[in-house]
Amino acid sequence: MEDELLKMKNLGKTSAQWLHAAGIHKTADLRRLGSIHAYRAVKSRGIKASKVLLYAIEGALIDKHWAELPPERKDSLAQQLRQLDSDTKRPLETPLEK
Q1: How far is the C-alpha of 11 from the C-alpha of 4, rounded, in Å?
Q2: CATH number assigned to the domain comprising residue 43
Q3: Which of 4, 6, 57, 88 has the most beta carbons within 10 angstroms of its beta carbon?
């Protein structure tokens, strides 16, 4: 069976395995979740992924190399991630788990 995540820009074997471990198996799953929730889903499994994975997922969703993301977009993603992580009222769940 072909792994459609591997066809996306920035996503290699390891990142695809991490996404699969988080229950994200299809491009549609990744698009539905978005980069921040997908990244959080991976991290919630105890995987020690850096923020480069967050940027790689964002780039994959817009078909752009992660290093080409504008600094403002990277800053915005990091800020949104910090906000979600600091929000103690929001459990660490993803829309796929609902």
Answers
A1: 10
A2: 1.10.150.20
A3: 57
